[in-house]
Known about the structure:
The N and C termini lie far apart (about 40 Å). The chain contains six helices and four strands. By secondary structure, the chain is α+β, with helices and mostly antiparallel strands.
Amino acid sequence: MSSFKHKVFVVQNISIAEWLLLVESWWMLLGFYLALLFVSYDRLNKWTPPLSRKISVSFAYQAFAERLKRLVDISSRLHLLPMTCLVRSLALRWMLNKRGIPVQLCIGVSKTLIGMHAHAWVEINGQPIGDALDVAERFKKLT
């Protein structure tokens, strides 16, 4: 299946509410992509919205976070600009915090034979959202 046909197939099978989240995430990704060009990560990290209401994370919220991660990933593939894991993680954290779901942005590095690799991901209560469960073992978290 061609890439375009696959994208059309993916976006045809989502609800109206998911469409709204998809559009919101597309704009969030663009905003964070552009912000990272002009603003340092430390400064950008302070822009995280305060939790409007902190909720205890249940299975339903974990499932919502996983679904939102999938929608952010779909949005990133619909962009013409390259959306890195850092941009996707910043957007996901923003969107979840805005909805009262407390998450942590993690950045890690891994040294291999061919060099250093970095990765960013989001966690709820120490569990990665939409990433491999061993991501924290493969990448040493930066503090």
